[in-house]
Amino acid sequence: MPDALTPSPAPDALPGGTPSGAGTLPEAPATDDGAPHQTSTRPARRSNSYRRLFSVPGALAFTLGNLLARFPQGMFSISAVIMISGVRGSYALAGAVTATGLVANAVVGPWTARLVDRFGQARVAVPAVAASACGSLGLLLCVRFGAPDWTLFAAYVATAATPNTGGMSRARWAHLFADDPDALHTANSFEQAADEFCYMLGPVVAAFLCGSLFPEAGTLASVFLMVSGILVFAAQRSTEPPVHARTEHARTPLRVRGMPPLLLSFLATGGIFGSLEVVTVAFADAQGHKVWAGAILALQAAGSGAAGLVNGALKPTGPADRRHPLCVAAMTVLMTLPLLAAALTGSLFVLGGALLIAGMATAPTMVAGMTLVQQRTPAAQLNEGMTLAVTGLLGGIACGSAAGGTAVEHWGATAAYAVPVAAAGCALLLALYGYTRRPGR
């Protein structure tokens, strides 16, 4: 595609480049001192790629609103665990409640996204966030005033209405840069980096608020940020994707060629994240430094976020359906580093360095995967398609957490690092199979 900043040829130019008038080029205009201007033949240089994104009217505003609304996604679970365990004194109850919310979100999320596609982001996101906020506040009140345990589950299930804010932001970029794949690549890279930093800093902020103020502080702050952020985001109507007419026989994105193996690769990728978290906490605990587990895991997210920003500043090489299996292959190779660091050194700090490096393949893999979702999903179902990818990740995280915990119990924390390696291997096989099933073959 031609560069948007490259000047178009004159309307009266012939295919050979010679104007249809005189056979000589027009004389360059003179400067004030009478000397002719020297016309440069060098192409105009593009501005910084991220600056190009936010030069679009309304883009900066909807991005800031979306970041405010998305940041609590890394706060809700840890806030609920600290609040419930601190007031009720039961980590088992806290874990069961948050797990129920995760499963409910995986079930309800695609339906919420389908409503967003059908009626528009602003019309659905605002009431959905209101329902989610009521669920969080209901949980807070039930915990605070000693309501029966079952009410905690009932209240927290309402948080499943939370819309996929990251997916809605990606849908806006896909609409704004539908004819500019390079800019869309940069936008997807920025969104992935934002995800990593939100999930890296969110738990830290939540733990600080709950520990330094009162157990409910994290939940209250999360609700305030989510509601205020979505109101700012929804107010930017100029960048909102249009609602597409949907026929009665429209296929679910699950039936689009190439989508099932792609979504299964997201499931396996989630297995990496879930198992890595549990195994790292167990390894740190075995070393007597459980307090450092969060910081060590944050290094993996930091490596991914930094790689995402660098990846966005570079021009993508080749189509996304070819980049995706290559990125998954790199992620599989790098995921062996934590296993080697734990087995060969037993050092928590060496493990942290291995996680930092291993994380650098995560963002490019996710960017290529999300780009494929955008390309393969019909425009009228874009939010649904991306929410299905997130649902796959959440399901994989849940399965990975269970598999990692079981491996720790039976093999020990060091050997359990084989679980994320195995999950990465599954993701690679699925990505390769998806490449053979890509549309057009």
UniProtKB/TrEMBL annotation:
Record has Cytoplasm as a keyword: no
Stored SUPFAM superfamilies: MFS general substrate transporter (SSF103473)
Keywords, comma-separated and alphabetical: Membrane, Transmembrane, Transmembrane helix
Region (Disordered) residue spans: 1-47
InterPro entries in the record: MFS, MFS_trans_sf
Gene Ontology molecular function terms on file: transmembrane transporter activity
Coiled-coil intervals: none
Transmembrane annotation, as ranges: 53-71, 91-112, 124-147, 217-235, 262-284, 290-314, 326-344, 350-373, 385-408, 414-435
PANTHER family in alphabetical order: MAJOR FACILITATOR SUPERFAMILY (MFS) PROFILE DOMAIN-CONTAINING PROTEIN, PTHR23542
Protein's name according to its UniProt entry: MFS transporter
Source organism phylogeny: Bacteria, Bacillati, Actinomycetota, Actinomycetes, Kitasatosporales
